[in-house]
Amino acid sequence: MRVLLSAYGSRGDVEPLAGLAVRLRALGAQARVCAPPDEEFAELLAGVGVELVPLGQPVRSFMHGATPPSAAELTRLRIAMVAEQFDTVAAAAEGCHVLVAAGLAQVAARSVAERLGIRYVYASYHPVSLPSPHHPPAPRQGWPPPPEGAGNRTLWDLDAQGITELFGHALNTRRASLDLPPVDNVRDHVFTDEPWLATDPVLGPWREPADLDVVQTGAWILPDERPLPARLMAFLEAGSPPVYVGFGSMRAPEGIARAAVEAIRARGRRAVVSRGWADLAVLDDRDDCLVVGEVNQQALFGRVAAVVHHGGAGTTATAARAGAPQVVVPQMVDQPYWAGRVAALGIGAAHDGPTPTAASLSAALTTALAPGTRDRARAVAGTIRTDGAEVAAKLLFDTAARGGPPGPA
What we know:
Elements: E1 2-7, H1 11-26, E2 30-35, H2 39-47, E3 51-54, H3 59-63, H4 71-93, E4 98-102, H5 109-116, E5 119-124, H6 152-177, H7 186-191, E6 196-197, E7 215-216, H8 230-237, E8 243-246, H9 256-266, E9 271-274, E10 289-292, H10 297-300, E11 306-309, H11 313-322, E12 326-328, H12 335-345, E13 348-350, H13 358-368, H14 371-381, H15 388-402, E14 407-408
Parallel strand pairs: 1-2, 1-4, 2-3, 4-5, 5-6, 5-14, 6-7, 8-9, 8-11, 9-10, 11-12, 12-13
């Protein structure tokens, strides 16, 4: 069996596909990944022996330029990506049996599968992106605020309308050139009636009843066997467990490193600060702080007192699996959801708003570092599933074996 896995986004979008590709290979399938051509993603996939098919422009240079991209610039990129997907994804999917698309940015993927006559699966990395009567859609940058008092179903209808207005013309123009019928509702066309949800059922549950027949596989985790750098190991062994601070691929809040270190010191703790795409740094040379680059979080988080982060799905799941209390400072999209789940599960604190101060982080750390939070985090860690990628890989084999006309699994 041959499978194409496609996503366009940050590391949190690409790494789960690498985890799924590795499990597919272990079961005897061939898998390649369509993803942005960032050097970090190329190294990640090459490190596990998975082929990268470059898709679009690098994400890091676009998202971390001198100024943040405007809503208009993001819109232009997204529309241009429709044509890019029809060309790149279609070429990469030749000879494949199944195409798996992750994230709404994959507007053209189902049309490609339809044209090639292969099976199609849509996957989400967080419940909040899928329409449900139990939650509203996440706010979309540049869109007008929703009507006051509107219910969830109304908000989801407006969300579908906005997505179709944004992508409908570009999508249907290319579909017409391929003799495919037009699509009236782009979002629901991309998602299908049976989307997959690649989240842990405890950490990110799907609530029923719902309009969609969601298949929850568990999170797609790429095992990381890399040793921690010697300098980091020496720092860990030189004192009590530190607090980790990292914002991954986000444009981190201005002054976050200084505020976090002040808050951590106020709690009598040491700090490990991850540079990330925001290039965080510590402004003094005291020996109670260490700045690190890309490291094995799976190994590190089991050795820290708490994890302060942006609330990406991957970081949240890794910290939860490690039993590390969390302070989530959500910035966008699904991150407020994960902050709320961390607080609801009692495994950490959700910061109120995206721009913390030393005082607000110190208060959140008081909750995260409390003995009861640590005990609860360790208890929840034992319930987190680690077989999501294997479950998904086996389901893909079943999907391919069914054969039949192209369409959702």
